[in-house]
Amino acid sequence: LDALQAELLKAAAGPPQETALADLAQFAELTVDAEEHIRWLRELVAQFPEAMEYRWQLVTVLVDHEGWEEAGKLLDTQLRNDGSDPPALILLRCLVDLRAGDEENATRRLKRTLGAHAPADSNPDVEKQLLAFAREKSLDAVTEDILKARVEREPDKAEAVMELAAFYRSRQRPAEMQQVLDRFAGGDSDGRPGRLNQVAGFLAGGGD
Question: E strands along the chain, which residues?
Answer without folding.
Answer: none
